[in-house]
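Quick one, probably user error.
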């Protein structure tokens, strides 16, 4: 990896995502691009202003500029703190920063197109904690971004990447997505658990499809980097939690879809984005091959 885009809001979660990115890029020379989106769409009622005066322009010129100046100060403080962490760690990391007013989903997606980062790493807050880095926002960005997006829970502090779960329902893109995963983290020592959860009865077709997928990764399997498993279960959430616990999973990788992204992960039961975020583990959304 050469460039990682890290959206920040100057919260605890922002610093967590930066620390995670540092561990993810160990022994690599890389640029961290810190990106902040401030609110420039603040609206006020027209009451009290002359009829001919544009209240939005009046308000933006006074308040939004102040928000930008405050963000600039916070970015300078964060940059200083991150540089201190880098110096202590001895890593070869360059820090660049930009700020932009607007909607986070749009601005992050557009920045990905312009910057062409190898990965987006962003912190996420739990349910009920508002802000542009809340879990729901991360899920929406995962759907729109043209590069892999890694969401790190705000309270997650186990900065390592050893055991990865990749749930599959034998999508035609599985081989490409897994190859994409390997290319991202091949500099690390890791193991990928490719698993298919069967919530109904045992399916012979699933076994055949798993064997076909396994054949595409014979080399990686021989090196101990990947394994394949059919899992019989009765409850999707229980199955997820048990599997992650038994296999010491510290990252979940998946291929999002625009609508019902996990509809086909489990044979006849839908699983929502929320189910993976509830695991309180980093979640990596990979993407389809263009063209």
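Nope, works fine. Designed sequence:
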């Amino acid at each position: 990896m050469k460039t990682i885009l890290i959206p920040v809001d100057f919260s605890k979660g922002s610093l967590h995502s930066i620390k995670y990115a540092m561990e993810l890029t160990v022994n690599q020379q890389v640029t961290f691009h810190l990106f902040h989106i401030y609110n420039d769409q603040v609206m006020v009622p027209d009451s009290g202003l002359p009829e001919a005066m544009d209240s939005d322009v009046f308000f933006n010129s006074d308040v939004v500029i102040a928000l930008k100046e405050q963000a600039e100060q916070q970015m300078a403080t964060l940059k200083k703190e991150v540089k201190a962490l880098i110096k202590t760690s001895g890593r070869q990391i360059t820090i660049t920063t930009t700020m932009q007013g607007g909607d986070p989903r749009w601005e992050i997606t557009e920045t990905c197109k312009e910057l062409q980062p190898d990965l987006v790493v962003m912190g996420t807050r739990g349910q009920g904690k508002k802000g542009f880095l809340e879990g729901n926002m991360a899920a929406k960005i995962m759907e729109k971004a043209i590069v892999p997006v890694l969401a790190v829970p705000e309270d997650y502090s186990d900065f390592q990447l050893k055991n990865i779960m990749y749930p599959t329902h034998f999508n035609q893109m599985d081989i490409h997505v897994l190859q994409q995963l390997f290319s991202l983290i091949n500099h690390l020592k890791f193991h990928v658990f490719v698993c298919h959860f069967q919530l109904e009865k045992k399916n012979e077709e699933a076994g055949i499809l798993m064997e076909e997928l396994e054949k595409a990764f014979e080399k990686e399997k021989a090196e101990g980097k990947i394994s394949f498993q059919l899992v019989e279960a009765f409850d999707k959430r229980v199955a997820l939690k048990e599997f992650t616990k038994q296999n010491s999973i510290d990252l979940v990788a998946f291929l999002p879809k625009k609508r019902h992204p996990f509809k086909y992960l489990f044979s006849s039961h839908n699983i929502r984005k929320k189910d993976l975020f509830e695991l309180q583990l980093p979640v990596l959304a990979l993407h389809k091959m263009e063209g």
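The chain has a mean pLDDT of 83.
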